[in-house]
Amino acid sequence: MQHIQSTGYNIYFNDDCYTYLQQLLQPGAYSTIFILSDENTSQHCLPTFLSMVATEIPMEIIEFDAGEVNKTIETCVQVWHALTDLGADRKSLVINVGGGVVTDLGGFAASTFKRGMDFINVPTSLLAMVDASVGGKTGVDLGALKNQVGVINNPIAVLVDSQFLETLPAEEMRSGLAEMLKHGLIADAGYWNSFLDLNDLSTTDLDALIHRSVQLKNEVVMQDPTEKNLRKILNFGHTIGHAVESYFLENPNKTTLLHGEAIAVGMILEAYFSAAYKLLTEGEYIEIKEVVLSIFPKVEFTADDITAIIELLIHDKKNESGKVQFVLLETIGSAVIDKLVENSLIIKAFEDYQN
User: Fold this and answer.
1) Based on the domain organization, do 111 and 254 belong to the same domain?
2) What GO molecular function terms would the record report (predicted)?
3) 2-30 pLDDT, tens per residue?
4) Which of 140, 168, 196 is the last residue of a domain?
5) Residues 112, 20: one domain?
6) For labelling, which of 89, 120, 181, 312 has a CA lying 20 to 30 Å from the CA of 301?
């Protein structure tokens, strides 16, 4: 499968990942290799990955607890201490093997330790393959607020090996589909149509869909690496979705949602806004709602939940001058940025979602 060229690095797929690594990890290329993973990927993915990597460079493994709740500056401090204790220097290489929490946090730790070390992302979840590992966004959460602290800094490569998906539970696979659906909605109607019937999806089909999803994101990022304009369209579904995810993460009476589950809610609501403003047709909105709900179970919200979620919107990173900025769809396959939405319409969208 053809590699994808990004700004200053390449994204490799399947067998080409290990060909690249063998060429890179020659004696003397790096002083030490540090592999960062969480407890899940250490158990399910790391043995396979290590079996494919042969190098004389000394290698150390740093592991932290799994889950979004551990995507914090405190975990990052633990990683920095581990790097220090194990003798990391600026000629060391960090390889992040895991889902989006690992690639986000690991990229941030590597980007800031000794003012920057090379790092490679090896995403092992569908979500990380098509979204988190690509584009250079690194960082940690601040309390329940998503990705509030971080930097944009590219890896030297991203290695996407779809065999790791065999280790994922069904709900994690489904979570990754949310970002793939988003890429079709904002940039490629034909790609969106690929998801209208998932019943006969083969492994080959999935590889091709992953490749196209990465390609779509990369095309946007290359035009606007630091998210001044066009790259904002990648946040479709995320303004509401991140607030929903944060609220369910911090509320002890709620079951924590996976990222894709929260983004699925956000995409339906933000599609509703788009239809309300006469950008999307009613038929397009209904199609989006039906397709997303055919994949993701509906989430229940009380009136108090909705009020609290709206209050969280003020912390969204796209906001300017205290105003919440949304990405809306002008049709399936095309998006517009920096749109304001009244709270009354947000409440109506939640009501429509529940019906």
Assistant:
1) no
2) 3-dehydroquinate synthase activity; metal ion binding; nucleotide binding
3) 999 999 999 999 999 999 999 999 999 99
4) 168
5) yes
6) 181
| Cβ neighbourhood burial of 344 (10 Å; 0-12, 13-18, 19+) | exposed
| Residue span of the structural domain in which 267 resides | 171-354
Domain of 226, CATH number, reads 1.20.1090.10
- Both 256 and 145 in one domain: the answer is no
pLDDT at 5: 96
Residues 156 and 210 both lie in one domain: no
According to the model, what pLDDT value does residue 203 have? 73
Query: Are residues 321 and 268 part of one domain?
Result: yes
The pTM (predicted TM-score) of the whole model is 0.93
Give the chain's residues under pLDDT 70: 316-322
CATH of the domain at 155: 3.40.50.1970
Domain tally for the chain?
Answer: 2
Query: What is the C-alpha separation between 16 and 148, in angstroms, rounded?
Result: 34
Residues 162 and 175 in one domain: no
Domain's final residue, options 132, 147, 168: 168
In angstroms, the CA 278 to CA 258 distance is 31
The whole-number pLDDT of residue 214 equals 97
Predicted local confidence at residue 320, as pLDDT: 64
180 and 301 in a common domain:
yes
What integer pLDDT is reported at residue 207 of this predicted model? 95
pLDDT averaged over every residue in the chain = 94
